[in-house]
């Protein structure tokens, strides 16, 4: 009788110990998941860390065009990582040639490669080249003008693909929740700088789960607001009348 009572108490202790171990092991992933939610990519101290970057003229190339411009078997060689993970400025540059042989030398190639080649310019760049480049969001190149790209080995005639990149903001899903926006929405960016404060409308939301909060404006826009001397940058949902 006594031995059976002892055996039962031992069993109960073993069961309780197993339950405690199960509880502690199951809580670890939950804690890690909570930490990930509290600190999404690019967040600092539980809030989005807004970054505004000037996107200077550059181009994107296909694998085929990389080989045509830089030689058979050539691939893009990363020189500097960009703020968005997985993207980089390559060591390679090309010359962009417009009508009447107007040209821009040493235009940086950005990687990785894409399914189609595209050249992104500021307004002053397009005027210099003599190309009437329309304002387009990246990838929307139908009906746009073309140009000639010249590399150290060969050249490529683009029938289309020269654009003035529309201002936009990269953000992840947690950023979207914070600002109450979704992919494709428009936002407003206000940049305060001495005697050069500017509010930019029509900032397109480009949402991706791996993105970090970053607004891209071109060199003309960066010069207009004197971004280097900015004392405050505020991003908010267009038409909401609120400010976060």
Automatic annotation (TrEMBL):
Carries keyword Metal-binding?
yes
Query: Under which main EC class is this enzyme filed?
Result: transferase
GO molecular function annotations of the record: acyltransferase activity, transferring groups other than amino-acyl groups; metal ion binding
Q: Name one GO cellular component term.
A: bacterial microcompartment
Q: Where in the cell is it found?
A: Bacterial microcompartment
Tell me which EC number(s) this protein carries.
2.3.1.222
Q: What is its main location?
A: other
Q: Which cofactor does it need?
A: Zn(2+)
State the similarity comment. Answer: Belongs to the PduL family.
Q: What is this protein called?
A: Phosphate propanoyltransferase
Taxonomic lineage is:
Bacteria, Pseudomonadati, Planctomycetota, Planctomycetia, Pirellulales
